[in-house]
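Encode chain A's predicted structure.
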Amino acid sequence: MGLMAMVQLKCPETGKAADIRSVETAPEAFNFAAWMTEIPCPHCGVGHRWTSSDYVQAMLTLRDSPDASRILVDGGSATALP
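Encoded structure for chain A:
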């Protein structure tokens, strides 16, 4: 098994990160299906939109930064963090 990274969604109200899911680093391929869901935020109590596009952006960022321990998704962009 490879290293794991936590994909996080940034709360637009507080700026704090909410964990979405753990993923294996540097995936060669991933299943893509269009979807959208609301993630209940532990920081502000509001549901924030999490989409398949956010997931794809996170996976592409993870592929380019395999040593990252976190990938923070914020408004359609993703940032690799140590």
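The longest strand covers residues 17-24.
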